[in-house]
Amino acid sequence: MKFDIVGKFKVFTAFQITGRGLFLVGELKSGTVKVGDYINLTMIDSTLVPNISAVELVLRYEENEAVEDLAIGVKELDDIVLSKVQDSISLLQTISILSND
Q1: Which residue of 7, 8, 65, 78 is most buried, as measured by CB atoms within 10 A?
Q2: Alpha carbons 94 and 69: distance in angstroms, whole number
Q3: What is the DSSP string of 21-60?
Q4: Taking a C-beta distance cutoff of 8 angstroms, is the pair 11, 88 a contact?
């Protein structure tokens, strides 16, 4: 499958929601992201390009001011890969959003 880079996403944190999968929370630095796109996690595992199953806004407060971050949800990761992603969050920093449209 051939992919085109359609966006860049800076990862701040990652967490798992039971029944919904892994969520990467951060900021879209450029381009676009939508359900059905893919995220490039090949720096963790050479074959890891999971499908995006959810795109949601997350509110956090910084110095009494609301800030919106973006959460990208991925369902198709097993427990071992989930652990690798969560352990490697500092390596992720900015990841590519991919599309095969």
Answers
A1: 7
A2: 14
A3: EEEEEEEEEEE---TT-EE--TTTSTT--PBP-EEEEEEE
A4: no
Cβ proximity of 27 and 9 under 8 Å: yes
The CATH number covering residue 93 comes to 2.40.30.10
pLDDT (tens place) for every residue of the chain, 101 residues total = 789 999 999 988 888 888 888 899 999 999 999 999 999 988 777 778 999 999 999 998 989 999 999 999 998 777 777 777 777 776 667 899 999 87
Q: Residue 73 has which token pair? A: 């949800």
Q: Is the pTM of the predicted complex or chain greater than 0.70?
A: yes
Residue pointed to by tokens 């199953």: 53
Q: How many domains does the chain have?
A: 1
Q: Containing domain of residue 73, as a range?
A: 4-99
